Hints:
The protein has 2 domains: 1-30; 33-190, Sandwich (Jelly Rolls), CATH 2.60.120. 20% of the residues lie in helices and 43% in strands. It is built from 3 helices and 13 strands, in the order αβαββββββββββαββ. The protein has helices spanning 2-29, 43-46, 155-161; strands at 36-42, 50-51, 60-61, 63-68, 73-77, 83-87, 91-94, 99-107, 113-120, 131-137, 143-148, 164-174, 180-190. Strands 2, 3, 6, 7, 9, 10 and 12 form a 7-stranded mixed beta sheet that branches. Strands 1, 4, 5, 8, 11 and 13 form a 6-stranded antiparallel beta sheet that branches. The longest helix has 28 residues, at 2-29. The chain is globular. The N and C termini lie far apart (56 Å).
Amino acid sequence: MRKVKVAGLVLGMALMLTACGTSNSKKADEGLETWTVTENFSYDEIAKWGTMKTPNEGSGSGSAVETNTTDGFVTIKAADDGWGGLESDYIELDLEKDPMIFAQIFENPDGSNWGLKVVPENAIEDHQWGLYLVPDNNLKWNKYAGVKVTDVLDEDFQAIYGTKVKVKLWVFAAGGPESTVSVSELKVINTK
């Protein structure tokens, strides 16, 4: 009889906590229904990107050196000049929709860094080397780095290119010719 009472008490508490959790979850989700994923690049899609094209031929020409399907990441290696990576095809960003970009980084060895840049189509001279979305850093262990794009592509940028702009994404390793970064995915999310 005592086991039945204890089981009933535990079940009752579980139901109560579940109901509270559902209520809190609904509150936490309010306002998020407007968030829309516009681009979702998996590690195997990123592995197929071409090498970065910089104004100086060969500089930054990194490569994909490993695709790990077990853990789900692509490893990008810097070029001989100590930095470099891969670039996406052109994607369109609607800056009026306050996009955010998230990069899930599986690993970045100590002594290496990684970064994320954006290069606009028909870039003016000052923008041909890209604009940092995520500056060189050593974030790792399957964490997400995120950036509000309009913090970088601000009113000055929009005066040049408009609010709907085509860009390439650069994801790269830095810190030396042996530097690598392992990337699981990149997402572009409109928050409005």
